[in-house]
Every structure is written in structure tokens, then in C-alpha cells.
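Quick one - inputs below.
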Amino acid sequence: MSQEIAVIGSPEFTTGFRLAGVRVCENVPDDRKDEQLDDAVEDVLADDDVGIIVMHDDDMPHLSRGTRKAVETSVEPTLVTLGGGAGSGGLRGQIKRAIGIDLMEDED
Amino acid sequence: MAEDVKPTRKNLMAIEDRIELSERGHDTLEQKRDGLIMEFMDILDQAQDVREDLNANYETAQRKLDMARAMEGDVAVRGAAAALHDHPEITTQSKNIMGVVVPQIESSKVKKSLDERGYGLLGSSARIDEAADAYEELLETIILAAEVETAMKKMLTEIETTKRRVNALEFKLLPDLYENQEYIEQKLEEQEREEIFRMKKIKAKKEEQEAEEREAEAESAVEATVTSD
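Output:
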């Protein structure tokens, strides 16, 4: 089954992806992120046709704790954050927990 | 709790079997955990390279989009974006790394030629084309990052699970089993000692009885001799 890429973020963030042909874009204005970002992420998470979610790393703190955990640990669709280091998207914490040491230490 | 176990030979044998099985399982799980960590380290190197490419491509794409916006205007860029009719698609297959099923993502319609974009050659400018190109390249890197980072997440989950199992065997199950084994062995030894003591007592009593009987017999024999004389 073929799936699509979804982009969630401000209109400035999603425009470029639209130019590359991405159809599923959830536009959330900067001043409404605290109220609307959670719903946008939950809608995309529930969509079976979406295989990859793209978000900006700076938008992650706007998410509620539950939604953030759900999107960070989700495997299908999987989250790719832009603008962050190698340990972004919750990977750094998971590595620390599983391996026991902070392998991303040099990245920040 | 060791006191909950009945101190019988049958239970001791059952516990010894469980200890053997648990020790074997513990060794196997430890090997699996180490193997997974080694595989994970390979993926981690790859992921760090992909992340660097991703950040570099994102910066380039952003710069080109900003340039297109500045030169052509936001409306032109949005208009070009709205005209696209081919959308990138991904298909997921899976491969197995030490029992962990990780995805292999294949993409189609990500990189498009000018005529495939749908906004026409005259209706756009070179800057919009460059921005579109840069974002298409960024999408390709995002797909690669998604593949690598999903594999990492799955492997980390498996490492965590295996680690928890190893710890449960090492620090809970095996010590409990050893404690039970020791308790039963001690109880059985105690029972054995009691049995030996009891047997010795019985033997002593029996010997005493026999001695008394022999004495009585000897006395009656002496008496009989005296009366016959």
C-alpha cells in the first residue's frame, strides 16, 4: 500500500513542501499553535494513508505531553523533525534509557 | 519466598531444572542484547550522517524558498505549489535485523522534471524551480531519515525489552530460585540428620531391649539349673 508524507507546521514551513508536491499539509499559524497543533497532529496520526510526518523541532514544545509522546514513539507513521540535532524527536532520551549512556552528547 | 516451597526432592529437581533453563535463557538474552547494541551502533552512525545531510538540505531549501519568495512574491510561489498534480508516494517493505522487523521505505514521484511539475515553463521562474528542486531533494533525505530513525526506534524498543528480561532473570528470578534451592537442600539435610538420629535412637533402644532379654534369659537359665540341682 502506498502512503503519503504529511507536513505539519506554520504556513511558511509547509509552503516549500507543497512546492515539492506534498498534498497532506496541516497549516497551523504561529499564534494558534498552543490550541491547534495537538488536533492537527492527532488527525494525521489517525490517518492510515500517512507514512511519514514532518514537523519543525521548534514546534514540539507546543504539543501536549500525551500527544508529544504519541508522535515521538509512533513507528507508523514515523516522525521526522527538522531543525533539530540528531537526538531530536525523542530519540536521545530513548537511547539514554535503552543503552544507558548518552550517545548523542557530542551533537549538541 | 523460600518458605512457600515444600521441601521435597521432587520440588528440588523441578527447581534445578528451572535454574538450568533460566541460566541458559539469561545467557542467550545477554548475547541477543549485545548483538542488538552492536547492530544499533552501525545504524546510529548512519543516522548521524543522514541527520547532517537533512539539516544541510533543509537550510539550502529554506534559503532557496526565501529567495524565490523575495524575488517572485509569495503569491507566485503559492500558485506554483497549488498547480502540482503529482504527489510523492512511499511504499514500505520490511527486513529483519536479529528478530526486529525494520522498514525499508521506497519512494516514487519525489524528484520531478520541469514538465512533470504542472505549473508550466512560462508560468514560473528559475528561482521557483530551484526551490522546488531543493525541497524535492529534502524530501528524499527525509524519507531516508524516516527509514533509519524508525529502525533505530524499533531496535531501541527491542533492546529495552531484552535488557528488562535479562535484569529480571539476573536480579529476581534466578536469585529466588537459588534461595529456594538452598532452602530445600537445607531442609532435606535437616530431615536426613533427624532420620539418622532417630534410627540411632531406635537402634540403641533395640540393643538395650535385646540386652535386657538376654540378661533375663541368662537369669532364668541360672534359676533352672539351681532348681534341677
